[in-house]
Amino acid sequence: MADATTDIICPFLIDSGLSRGQAVRLQKTLDTIISQHNYPEPIGVLIAQSALLTALLASVIKFDSVFTLQIQGTGPVSMLAIDMTADGKMRGYSRFDEKAVAEAYEKVQKGAATVPAFFKGGTLSFHVEMKDQSYQGITALDHPSLADCVLEYFKQSEQIATALKIEVAPPSETQKGWTGSALMLQRLPFDKKTAETFSEVEIDDLWETATFLLHSATKKEMLDEQLPIEKLLYRLYHSNNLHFFIQRTIQFGCRCSKEKVINMLKSFPEQDRQEMFVDGKIKVDCQFCGKSYILTAEDL
How far lies 111's CA from each of 107, 144, 238, in Å? Predict the structure, then answer.
């Protein structure tokens, strides 16, 4: 059994394979991504929610390179990006107006919806990068929360019935570091084998029960360090023919390197590159991990 504090994705099936699910808990990964940038708490919450969504979505899509969730808005938060490699390395960053974010946070505290307050429209997109191809999904930021936007994407683009629950706690609540957890359930297509076992009415009833149980999970349960994620799932679905698959671990990892920075700079026109030099050097900071690269003309 996995350590309760390990950052993991736990895939599972219930109801004889009628529904598939993913459970995610992130702690060290979230804390590293958020704390290394010293993001204000409202941005930390958005980063945490996006990281959990990234883990969930990446776990149901087959890819062999990088999965990226990117949000572009026209409000206080102009950009938020999280990406995850096939081997579970995750990183993220955000661009925002700190004063405007503080004002938006006050509105949210008074009951305003999160997405309109912080992003004021824009798009949420998923980019799947494969070794030999890539593809993208996109949905508008026109729902109250990021989770609602993802649910709308599955409804409209994938036409898959989906239930989703996300919980996040900042250090001010945990008295430790950032922590977050998410549960996602998807109803699988009705096929011939299913029809031989269940009636459509029975399938509808099982799905309704499964989604009710998902939303019955409390924030305390989902974020409890002493409660392994598979034990939480057993509490919810022990009567639903629960079946676990191999868990995957997640950890912070940035893919920046001096070689990649040099290649990026070489892509600029010579005149533009020359204008970047200050005292004979070009300084480039990685937006994801904050590492600085100082390069000379010889390096290029």
Answer: 7, 11, 36
